[in-house]
Every structure is written in C-alpha cells, then in structure tokens.
Write a structure and sequence with these properties.
Blueprint lengths: L1 E7 L3 E6 L10 E4 L5 H13 L4 E8 L3 E2 L4 E2 L11 E2 H8 L4 E6 H12 L8 E6 L3 E7 L2 E2 L31 H4 L1 H10 L7 H9 L3 H25 L3 E5 L10 H11 L9 E4 L6 H16 L6
The structure holds zinc ion (ZN).
The site of zinc ion has 6 residues, from loops.
Pfam families: ROK
InterPro entries: ATPase_NBD, ROK
Family: Belongs to the ROK (NagC/XylR) family.
Length: 303
C-alpha cells in the first residue's frame, strides 16, 4: 500500500510518500520548470513510487482549479494556462489508485487542522505568504471548498489604503501588498538592495530600516484582511505560514496591532493569530490527508 502526496506549488513541484516516520528530508522537489511540467511531475511520482503499486494520490495545486473535472491552470505553469487534466493524467499513471485533488489553501487548512495550530478549534483561517498569498477557511470543523474548488483566496481580499495592480487583474488585493514579488519590489523602490523575501526577513531581523518598514507594511495589511475575515465568519484562530511569517519576524507586531485595532466586535476578543509549525510541509501534509480520505471512500478499496 503506497500513498503519495503531490504539490503543484507557486515555486516548486514536490512529492513525498505518506507513511509513518516519513519526514521533510524525504520530500523530492524541483523548481517549477519553464516547460515540460507534466514530464517532471511524472518523474517525481514514479521516482517515489519506485515500482510499487500506488493505492492513493493526493494533490495540492495552486489555483485556479476545476474540482469537478480535475483540470488545473496555475499561473506559474505557462503551458497549462488553457487547463491541464492533472487528475486524469495521474490516474493514467497509477490506474489502481484513487486520485484526489484540492486547492493549495484547502490542503493548507486540512494540514493545520490535522497536524498544526488549528487542531483544537472548529473555525479557523490558514494563510500562506509566499510568491502568492493563499489560504483556506475551516468553518464548523469543515474546510470550505466552494462551488468550483477555489474558496479561501485570502490573497485577493481587498486591503484599504492600497491600490497597486494584482496578478489577478484587479487592484489593491492583499497579494499586491504582501506577496513576495510585491514586497521585494516595494522595498527595492525604497532603496533596499536585496533580492528575495528570505533576504528581506533576514535584513529586517538585523535592523535594516527599509526591510523593517516593508514587513510593517505587509503585516498591517495582513492584519486588516484577517480582521475582515474573522468578523465575516466568526473565526477564532488564524495561522500564518511562509518565509516572512516565522516566529519572531518583524511581520508580527504590526499584524497583531492591526488585528487589535480592527477586530473589535464582541465575539472577537478570543481571536488568536499564530505562526505555523509546519514549515514548508503544509501543502504536502494536506494532500496526504485527502489521499487517505479518498482511499477510504473509494469503493475499490473499501471493505
Ligand atoms: Zn488579486
């Protein structure tokens, strides 16, 4: 019985076997290639399967996705822009397996619920700040999937005071303030000389004035978006992951200040916003959860 998890992430393609004792050192990953993405995904999966019969595969994919057809069109994979039948392709590769797919944010939310910071709450929001900004919402203990599978796009919640262009075609979205490209571009405009958000986080830690200001700007925006969503859905726990959201990052103080300023309804004082403990395993862990769930629901394997 071999179970695989696959991540079609914003910057990487990654896969791992889901089994007891398998940890992050067993993740196989490559940067999202300019071309030949399916060939690379296929190689990753076959490498991990190592000739064994695969019984289930769970897939976490960047959006947009179409849940009903299993087709994905993530922005970072150019050749898939017209829609790529990912579920069908994986199914052909492993005909005996049950194959299930969900949005990256849905998988993140499932991972935090099963293994992370939202284990003991029923109503939560899980956010990842990386190349894109995405998330998943859990209400009453159930992850919100949405009509087409794309619910939870916290990155495209509007933030007051911002009007910059967003990759979605709109303006003023959270991603256009707190996504890695926006964050580093803003810092460079102010005279910062670094390149990546990891550099930015390190420079902020070292006291670089512009890097600190960049994280303050992003933290305030994230806090405002969180306050809006918490009020809308009566959320009591929010977990934030990604390279600028590690514990101790300069993101947290402005984030907490914004939440304290804006989340003032009488049911919100218990709202807690915490860093994730799942490092970069969130999507794969969530994909593992849906693989196990789909296997249990599959009539071919149900007893
Ligand atoms: Zn947007």
């Amino acid at each position: 019985m071999t179970i695989l998890a696959l991540e079609i992430g914003a910057t990487r393609l990654a896969a791992i076997e889901i089994a007891d004792g398998v940890g992050s050192d067993r993740v196989q990953e490559i940067p999202v290639p300019r071309q030949g993405a399916w060939g690379k995904v296929r190689e990753l999966l076959l490498h991990i399967a190592a000739g064994r019969e695969v019984t289930a595969v769970g897939i976490a994919s960047s959006g947009p996705i179409d849940m009903s057809s299993g087709v994905v069109a993530p922005a970072q994979v150019q050749e898939w822009q017209a829609g790529f039948p990912l579920v069908e392709s994986v199914q052909k590769l492993f005909p005996a397996a049950s194959v299930a797919m969900a949005l990256d944010g849905v998988c993140l939310s499932l991972a935090e619920r099963h293994f992370g910071a939202t284990r003991e709450v029923m109503d939560s929001l899980s956010i990842q700040l990386s190349e894109t900004v995405f998330g998943g919402v859990m209400v009453g203990g159930f992850v919100v999937v949405g009509r087409t599978g794309n619910a939870g796009q916290i990155g495209h919640v509007l933030v007051p005071g911002h009007d910059g262009p967003c990759g979605c075609g709109g303006r003023g979205c959270l991603e256009s303030v707190a996504g890695a490209p926006a964050l580093t571009a803003w810092a460079r405009q102010q005279g910062w000389g670094g390149d990546t958000v990891a550099d930015l986080a390190a420079d902020a830690q070292a006291g670089d004035r512009i890097a600190v200001a960049a994280l303050e700007r992003a933290g305030a925006a994230v806090g405002r978006a969180i306050a809006s969503v918490a009020a809308l859905l009566d959320i009591d726990r929010v977990v934030v992951s990604g390279p600028i959201a590690t514990a101790g990052s300069g993101l947290w103080k402005p984030l907490h200040s914004a939440v304290a300023m804006h989340a003032r309804l009488p049911f919100l004082p218990g709202l807690r916003v915490v860093p994730s403990e799942l490092a970069d395993l969130g999507l794969l862990a969530g994909a593992g959860v849906i693989a196990l769930t789909s296997q249990n629901e599959d009539p071919r394997t149900a007893q």
